[in-house]
Specification:
With 131 residues, the chain is mainly α. The chain has helices at 3-28, 41-48, 53-59, 64-88, 112-130, and strands at 102-103, 107-108. A two-stranded antiparallel sheet has the order 1-2.
Length: 131
């Protein structure tokens, strides 16, 4: 599959997961409408995770929890780089400065389990639908 198509599919999958995540968060916080929030810029950030596909092949022989940790580290790197860049341009759609385990307001270390799960979900999608 061409990289541009992988980029679009990973971007769309990421947006769908974010809409679900933020909708569930608002539902948990008593918003019965389960309102979601995202930014169009997130499509490009999630799409950039398509460039992790060579990594997926390299780490495939390892146990799922090792792969999950590698994915989380890679996602943190992408999120941090995008966040710092966008923050400098005053266009970062998120701000974690108010949270306990933030790094420069652009990543949350307590999201590591979420990024492990997201990485493994994207791995599943890649091998079953995007390859």
């Amino acid at each position: 599959m061409p990289m541009i198509l992988k980029f679009v599919l990973f971007g769309a999958a990421g947006l769908m997961m974010e809409v679900f995540w933020t909708g569930m968060g608002s539902l948990i916080n008593k918003d019965r409408r389960a309102t979601s929030k995202t930014s169009i810029w997130m499509f490009f950030i999630y799409g950039a995770t398509a460039f992790m596909t060579p990594l997926i092949h390299v780490i495939q022989p390892f146990p799922w929890f090792i792969r999950g940790l590698v994915y989380a580290a890679a996602i943190f790197l992408i999120e941090y780089t995008a966040g710092i860049t966008m923050k400098a341009a005053k266009m970062c759609p998120w701000d974690y400065s108010h949270t306990r385990y933030n790094v420069h307001g652009v990543i949350r270390l307590d999201y590591a389990p979420v990024w492990v799960a997201v990485g493994l979900i994207k791995e599943f999608l890649y091998f079953n639908y995007f390859m």
